[in-house]
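Sequence design from tokenized structure. All designs in this work follow the same two-part layout: the structure record, then the generated sequence. An example of the structure record is given first.
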């Protein structure tokens, strides 16, 4: 079985590590079923990006999907844990935004850039 390209695997791995850090490094509450379900929900966009990387010709789109999700997660992490904000709903709804808006927008932008770069070199 082959691995996805590094430009998909690296942002996906960092996104998953950031989520695991938020659970085990920052949370002091004991783990329960709802929290575990929430963490699985937040890892779903990265799993989709890795799965998308195995589709023929979709590596650039998968890299854009994963990178856009990672950038949004880094912003949310800073806004929630490091900044003055206390928007806890961001953690709940961000995976939905990843799946519906952020990931597809990043995938589209990366796909268009790869397509434009490919047409210039031809």
């Amino acid at each position: 079985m082959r691995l996805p390209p590094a430009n998909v695997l690296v942002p996906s791995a960092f996104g998953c590590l950031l989520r695991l850090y938020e659970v085990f490094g920052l949370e002091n509450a004991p783990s329960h079923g709802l929290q575990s379900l929430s963490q699985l929900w937040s890892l779903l966009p990265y799993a989709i990006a890795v799965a998308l990387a195995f589709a023929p010709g979709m590596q650039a789109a998968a890299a854009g999907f994963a990178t856009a999700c990672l950038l949004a997660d880094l912003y949310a992490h800073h806004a929630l844990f490091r900044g003055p904000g206390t928007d806890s709903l961001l953690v709940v709804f961000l995976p939905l935004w990843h799946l519906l808006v952020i990931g597809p927008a990043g995938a589209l932008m990366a796909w268009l850039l790869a397509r434009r770069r490919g047409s210039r070199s031809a």
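The two ends are 31 Å apart (CA to CA). We note this feature because it recurs in several other targets discussed in the main text.
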